[in-house]
Amino acid sequence: MSASTNHAAVLGPGRMGRQIALAFALGGSRVFLVDAKDRPAGGAAAVFADARREIRRDLALMAEEGVIAAAEIAPALDRIEERIGLNGLDGCGFIQEALPELVDLKRNVLGRVSVRVAPEAIIASTSSTISPKHMVDSVRGDQRFLVVHWLRRPRARSSSGPSPSSRSSARFPCAARTRPASSDLGCRPY
């Protein structure tokens, strides 16, 4: 199984996940927006329809403000694919968790996804309130786990700040591998 950093998966189609998927798509990556939640019939379709509506609206606003060209809207939308469940993510080189701040939920999903993706795939969390130490042992191959917290700034596509810091790149080589990908997406570490 081989993974490409030009193919990402964002786990969680909520507000944060939608914006992360949008950043990857604008950066030229193919991205799966993944709903891992058990929902009643039609529930996932409604969540994805809302996500598409919001992403389409945000792209139109970005074009209106001159942040992107209007011609970038359709290709960005085409690069985002909705997925239900964690199967079929094996070609993704970057997995970004964007789930609610519930440690047991994050640990469960991170553990399940870590055995379904390539061993070299980077697995990241967006958590800002849960310490990475409470999640890292749930990931098979914990050296590829890190926290990338995304922040949308005015007139910028996005900003990400990989954690652990550059001082720990020797222990966490995925931090060093994430920095160039962040730059390719138009992101700036903070």
Please, could you describe this protein's structure?
A seven-stranded mixed β-sheet has the order 3-2-1-4-5-6-7, sandwiched between helices. Residues 152-172 have low confidence and may be disordered. Helix 1 (15-26) packs across helix 2. The protein has helices at residues 15-26, 43-64, 73-78, 103-114, 173-184, and strands at 4-11, 30-35, 80-84, 92-97, 122-125, 145-151, 159-163. The chain has a single domain (4-145), classed as NAD(P)-binding Rossmann-like Domain (Rossmann fold). The longest helix has 22 residues, at 43-64. 34% of the residues lie in helices and 22% in strands. It is an alpha/beta fold and 190 residues long.
How would you describe the shape?
A: globular
- CATH architecture annotation: 3-Layer(aba) Sandwich
Strand content: 15-25%
Order of helices and strands: EHEHHEEHEEEH
Q: Quick check: average pLDDT?
A: 83
CATH class identity: Alpha Beta
Structural class: alpha/beta
Give the helix proportion (percent range).
Answer: 25-40%
At CATH level 3, the topology is Rossmann fold
